[in-house]
Amino acid sequence: MSVVITGATGHLGRLVVADLLAQGLPADRITATGRDAGRLAALAATGVRTARADLDDPESLKAAFQGADTLLLISGSEVGRRVPQHTNAVRAAQEAGIGHIVYTSAPRADDTTLVLAPEHKATEEVLAASGVPATILRNGWYNENYGQQLDRARESGAVTGSVGGGRVASASRQDYAEAASAVLRAPEAHAGAVYELSGDTAWTYPELARDLGEVLGREVVYRDLTPEEHLAALTAAGLDEGTAGFVVALDANIRDGELEAAGGELSRLIGRPTTPLAETLRALA
Q1: Where are the beta strands (DSSP E) in 221-277?
Q2: Which of 275, 254, 277 is nearest to 266 (CA)?
Q3: For the whole model, what pTM was predicted?
Q4: 221-240 residue pLDDT tens
């Protein structure tokens, strides 16, 4: 059994490669790919195969996928371009004879108002139409998304947002990487599965502020703003209107409960509890 991983130079991809090796998959059965060949050197040093693969370059994908049994398609980072990029990867997998595709999607991609979901829903539809057996990993929020709050909270003693009483069931990147690794090592057991992956505990933003305060050793409070106030604060801080609007839309999704589901599927896949937010924040600090 051999696997090929797109986006292996990113945070999640590197962790997946590391866990596959730690779980005993021979290095020569792993092909780590990325757009920038220069960034693959560190992965090559672990003994795994490496190949340049650009989601905008179908020929590079087809060459990189040759000989692999299973593909981990880690969703691209370019919002607005992901559907054609992912379609390129699925078609290249078909042409290369890949027998199973594992895709990192978004929570409840086919039934949510989450602003990030439409491209993932479209990709899931491309996968279904391809006829290639697939497993969908609908990854929830990462604990690491809140690492940037550490410096802000250290300086201001506050976390601001417009989430109201919304909750987030986040987990660490390591947790999601171990889930992907588990599926890649036994793809037949997960064929056709759609996993809603999230942390075991859904926390509120006042609880985020509390955890930040404990890590930083100072009082940190959560200041809840209206969406209009939040947008104004973000633009005043230097964000362009498009980015600021996107952040406010994500907070609206949290306020509406789109990220609060803590169904336990992630902990079942990895065989242990998910990593608490506070533990990740301490590591990042």
Answers
A1: 221-224
A2: 275
A3: 0.96
A4: 999 999 999 999 999 999 99
